[in-house]
Predict the 3D structure of the following.
Amino acid sequence: MNKLNTFKKQLLKWSINNTREYSWRYSNDPWKILLIEVIAQQTQLNRAHVYYEKFIKRYPTPREMSVATKKEILSLWSGLGYNSRALRLHESSKILTKKSFNSIYPNFDILPGVGKYTKNALLSFAYKEKVITQDTNVTRIFSRFFGIKNPENFIKENEKNILKNVQSRKFNQALMDFGSKICKAKNPLCNECIFENNCEKFFQNTKYTQPTFKGSNREIRGKVIKYLINNENIDIYSLNRILKIEEDKLNLILKKLEDEGMINIKKKKLIEISS
């Protein structure tokens, strides 16, 4: 239980400064949630966002889509691929024009193309239900962190405890962001991971080899600390220019150092060693 609580606490803390900003993430409109979830299937989220904006502008409610022709919908969908998704969305809009989301709640899987993941996304993001939206990102994180071969069963058996004292919406979004940014399917950024010291995968993976020191986060952390010891109140821009480090990477390292209590980042982005 302590390991689970540590996982939850660290993940939500990480998400504060690492949330991907999209308009639908602040909406509890089930139509908007359904739109983005269907569009985002098999699609990178940044690309899905572009199409979502087109669709929500043209079809702000199910009624507008229900009276559109398939040709109109497929034309707007063009370039996204998996056209059957657009047609299932069209069929869903017809159902939702006759029946509201509330009238079919919680059985959203009666809608064409809505499986367990999309159903749970609607329950969590639109109805604030305590459910976990399980996609490959989420199951991968649980599998790696807890060192388990069947994360689906683990989540099912522990869902109540996993979501205890947390908002499922924020927690699910944090999981998806972390899986996309850090705990990737290929080439996960283990040495930038907040769970590095607690992750079972990190310690048990026999294929893992110690990364080279040159250019690593450890080397950069050392350079930052060494420079700050000898120089007071330097701003982030100047430090970046002097150390010649990629801006995003430097910001990530500085944030981690600040979270660890090693440095303080003050107004005007002045940095100093913590007292």
